[in-house]
Amino acid sequence: MKYVKVTNPLILESDRTVDLLTFDYFGGGFFTVDGNATKENEWIARESATVIDEQTDSGFLDIIRIIRRTEINYSFTKSVFELTSQYVKDEIDTFYIQEKEAMNYQADNDVSTPFIDAIASAREMDRVVLINKIIAHLALYKSNIAAKLGKKQKYFDEINSATTYSDFNLLNWTE
């Protein structure tokens, strides 16, 4: 697939603007606008855009980088949401308090743990049992987040080192 760069963003004197990503040029010789291969859209695209070399055009490659990063960020955010969907934001915001108190308790059994004590009391659960549960859950959570983040950063490194459009096609983000 060839891509085009818009040289006249005003299409048919309308208020509608079309950017680089709404045009596709296919080897068979027709353009599409918004995925519609009509004669009118073919004319609009031919009059409004010029074909660029997607392998080497730096502006085009920068746009592909942005697109790929956006796709990866979306996928990462979605996977983190799936991991944390059982918790509301306010609860997640307390993880650091729970972790701090739990770790302090592990280091010194005589340390005060008011936040954990309140949770344990409300749950009618032994404080030590809750502390062990908190530590286990947070360790699993951190491990999962770290793996997802490391994978995301690896793909960002590969995106940053890509020098041709073909390089981007070799990248396969899966989550």
Strand proportion, as a percent range, falls in 5-15%
Shape: elongated
Q: What is the CA-based Rg, rounded?
A: 26 Å
Structural class: mainly alpha
Biggest sheet overview: 2 strands, antiparallel
Q: Please state how the strands of the largest beta sheet are arranged side by side.
A: 1-4
Number of domains: 2
What is the H/E string?
EEEHEHHHHHH
Give the tally of β-strands. Answer: 4
Distance between the termini: 26 Å
| Mean pLDDT across residues | 74
Helix content: 55-70%
User: Number of helical segments?
Assistant: 7
Low-confidence stretches: 1-46
Structure summary:
Helices cover 60% and strands 8% of the residues. The protein is elongated, with a radius of gyration of 26 Å.
Structure description:
With 175 residues, the protein is mostly helical. It has two domains: 3-52, no CATH class; 70-170. The chain is 60% helix and 8% strand. The protein has helices at residues 39-48, 58-84, 89-92, 95-107, 114-123, 127-161, 165-170, and strands spanning 3-6, 23-25, 31-33, 49-52. Strands 1-4 form a two-stranded antiparallel sheet. A hairpin with a 5-residue loop joins strand 2 (23-25) and strand 3 (31-33). The chain starts with a strand and ends in a 5-residue tail after the last helix.
